[in-house]
Amino acid sequence: MFKNIMIISASESFAVKAMEQKLLAVEIGAYQVAARIAEIGSNIDRAGLIVLYLDERMAAMTASLQNMLSYLNDKMYESNKMLIIIGKRKDYEKTFDRKALLTRLEEFFEFR
Predict the structure, then answer these.
(1) Helix (H, G, I), strand (E, B) or coil at 31
(2) How far apart (Å, rounded) are the C-alpha atoms in residues 7 and 24?
(3) With the C-alpha atoms ordered 93, 35, 69, 81, is the resulting torsion angle positive or negative?
(4) 4-111: what fold?
(5) Rounded to an integer, what distance in angstroms lies between the CA atom of residue 77 and that of residue 111?
(6) CA-CA distance, 57 to 92, in Å (whole number)?
(7) Looking at 10-14, 25-29, 85-89, 93-97, which range is the least confident one?
(8) How far apart, in whole angstroms, are the C-alpha atoms of residue 102 and residue 51?
(9) Are 29 and 3 spatial neighbours (Cβ–Cβ below 8 Å)?
(10) Which pLDDT tens digit goes with each residue over 1-60?
């Protein structure tokens, strides 16, 4: 199993960059790809786990988001990959617990 996480996001934001740095600090590779079918398809094989970072920009993608999610679902099923969905909503500003996420990701790669 590859100890790499593919982070899918609408753009490379500060939150995504910070997540990549935190993961690298605990020796888990991470790389960001745009939420486009072609980019996901050419990068999914080297991922041990997929993180989908949902934010307002991703939600605004509507039709292309639906196509991308359908494609991602098929690829994950074919390759037996797991997905974690994180993000924040505009009307609910509580962010996810990054420390808890890192702990869970370390455990995931340890026991897999």
Answers:
(1) strand
(2) 13
(3) negative
(4) Rossmann fold (3.40.50)
(5) 20
(6) 15
(7) 93-97
(8) 12
(9) yes
(10) 458 999 999 888 888 898 899 888 888 899 999 999 999 999 999 998 999 988 877 777
At 73, list the tokens. Answer: 């679902």
Strands of the 29-34 sheet, one edge to the other: 29-34, 4-9, 49-54, 83-87
Residue type, 30: A
| Strand (E) or helix (H) holding 4 | strand 4-9
Phi and psi torsions of 50, nearest 5° = -120, 135
Residue whose pair of structure tokens reads 């199993």 in the numeric block: 1
> Which pair of tokens denotes residue 58?
């991703």
The single-letter code of the amino acid at 52 is: L
Q: Tell me the two tokens of residue 40.
A: 């996901």
For 2-97, where are the alpha helices, taking DSSP H only?
Answer: 14-25, 37-43, 56-59, 62-79
